[in-house]
Amino acid sequence: MATADYDKAREAALALLEKYNIKSPVVPVFDIAQEEGLSIKSFDMPDELHDVAGFFDPATKIIYVNQAETANRQTFTVAHELGHYILNHPADQVGVLPRWPKMQTGTNNAPEQEANCFAEELLVPSHFLKEQMEKYDVSPENSEILAQLFGVSRSVMDIKLRHTWLRAI
User: Fold this and answer.
1) How many whole angstroms separate alpha carbon 18 and alpha carbon 48?
2) Fewer CB within 10 Å of terminal CB in the chain, N or C?
């Protein structure tokens, strides 16, 4: 089984921010996806897909998003699925994105890990995080405030903070 290339995922996210000249939060991920030629369809998932936050259909270049999710979760879903597209993941290696984080932890699927890393870095770039923490004198313990500044969920921010401190920004 392939190993996730986190550096590639982070570099691709940062390249996209540079391409669209995005210098501060909140990152307009829906606009970026559309500029990259993707369509986004938000709809009620049928009962058999109740546990799905979203998925990407490479044949039609459509990202499907579960409209039952919060706005922040939909943003992460679009960023994650955009990651699959930008990273050129093979369609047969990409699944659906589960709604609940406990369903996706510990995945050994390299494309899913890379798409998560891409989404995390696109929505909360490490250098933006450092700038915002300094600008507003906010510590990592105030992840709720940071999440609001970046327009992401607290769980996304908590994961980003954990990963960022492991890499020491």
Assistant:
1) 39
2) N
